[in-house]
Amino acid sequence: MTPPKRLRRSPQGATLAARQSRIRGVRLIGVGVLAMTVLLGGCAIQPWVKPYERERLADPIMAFSRNALPERHRDHVRDVREGARGATGVQGGGCGCN
Amino acid sequence: MNMSLHHRLSRERRAAPSSLDPHGGRTLQGSGLGALLRGTRWVLCAALGLAAGSALPVVTPTTLAPDFTLRAMAGPNMRLQEQRGRVVMINFWATWCGPCRQEMPHLNRLYQKYGASGFVLLSVNVDDDTRNAADVAAKLGVTFPVLWDTDKKVSRLYDLATMPSTVLVDRDGKVRYVHRGYLNGYEDTYEKQVRELLK
Amino acid sequence: MAATDLLRRLSALLGGVLGGLFAAGGARALDLPADNAEAMFHSYNGGGVNANGPALLVRKSIADRVSLSASYYVDSVSNASIDVVTTASPYKERRNEYTFGADYVYRDSQITFGLSSSKEPDYTANRYSLDISQETFGGMTTVSLGFTRGSDQVGKHDAPEFADIATHWQYRVGVTQILTPRWIASANFEAISDDGYLGSPYRIARVFGAAVPERNPRTRSSRAMNFRVNGDLGSRDAIHLQYRYFWDTWAIKAHTVELGYSRYFGDKWLADASLRYYRQGHALFYSDNAQTETTYVSRNRQLSTFDSVGLGAKVAYTWRKVPGRYEVKLNGGYEYVRYKYSDFTDIRTGTPYGFNAGVLQLYVSATF
Fold this sequence. Notes:
A: 2 helices, B: Glutaredoxin, 2 domains, 6 helices, 38% helix
């Protein structure tokens, strides 16, 4: 007589149970994401800066990055001399300059 | 905009088929299931501490285009209501918006081609600095009327969601098409729709 | 019939809701980066090191869908720094760096693919990167993700038997948020992992006063968080604020604070001023003169406790401008930086080391 599926202790059974719970977990996350989407889609924090109010923000002096070359160079000069690196918005290249 | 106008617009939207409604006839918003979903959404939003809103745009196809009067770059003030009987394209633009500048030559061509057949193009500029905008308009070689909306009243009235925005109004003053943004190829759609409305 | 009809309507609702969440307002299009070209002469002078050279960048959009860019950068280095002077002899070297990039825009997303290759006589570094940025919430929020993978080949002058590699992984995530019509803020996070030979085959460490070749760990994992705010002050000027916190598995902690101010003068002039303060703590295995034997030891002053203050000024002159067509600007910038080390001594004098550096950038930039 075969034991009920729940009590199976074979390696295949263990991985099957793990896979089942993982699938259940993924389904749960999927349903959660869907619910959140429907939820937040109906919640109204409307964008408060309208497209026609963005004149000042479109000015080059308000941009975080104006000219790529000088910024890359400035970032490189600092990278070589300082221990800190990264998160500056410049996708830099490497060099053996230490 | 007062509440009665708002209610009138939402009733109109439910009654007439919208050109943006892929299914035709009544949309889900109007049916009982829609009401149930809206209610549930409201409860869930309240639970999150947010206000449940209905993002109902003011300017949708089949509504009357809101009337406005604006100062023109060259010539007297222009009022939208006076253009009844003609097909009107209201184009909102700004000097700082790249796609707006890109579509100017195409709009110019449209204006010159159909201007005599009862087509009018009102380009509403939303810059703060009208002198600079006039300069840019001149350099782009525009021949259609440019109107100034420096206090953004008309932009707010039309609830612009993008820059540029183009609204096509038919001879009866009803909004027929709303275009958000500009991508290469849009000018062909504009031409097709203008010809359709001119018939 | 009714079931499929209902299903269709539900999917339309979901599509509408999702669309609303990610693109409130319809088919918005991100702008492709503007076509531009830059030519620059750069010069660094400080602490006995002189590095200068030209740099070029060209960016052009193809068929309104893809923007391609290429840049070439040269560093001619004349190195007589304190390390070189006290432990070796001055040398001259030239480094070339080539970078290629492709940007693709689809509706509200931008995908950037980049390749970079840097070559010097004893070091080759290759990087490839992928960045995705997505505009959401009516264009007010931009979320970006990025990944860079690098692989380096490390060599040594006059020692062909020395050959090693280093690999790097960089993961970036950033959010840019429009706060008001005049203020915009951004937060960036970057995690960098390095593996392999992370030191310099020429550098000497000091243990009990004696010179030994340095021994660096073969892995390093670092994190950096950067916060920036730009604000328009109303009279054709803007203020820039930036703070970065850095920490890594070598126990280095660093703070960077930068303050900047930009202002237009008349029709043609734009001036920027900046003040930057940087401070870092030393790496765990760093020592100016180690008094114990440790697995890792380094006297690399880049890993020591030091701070630096930089004062910079930049000026841009609009030489030719046809709005909507092209614009050519002449730019010049200079930054004066003072480095002060707390636990790195100048063995020529016995006092903590410090030096001044000047960074000069002269460039022509054109958008068309």
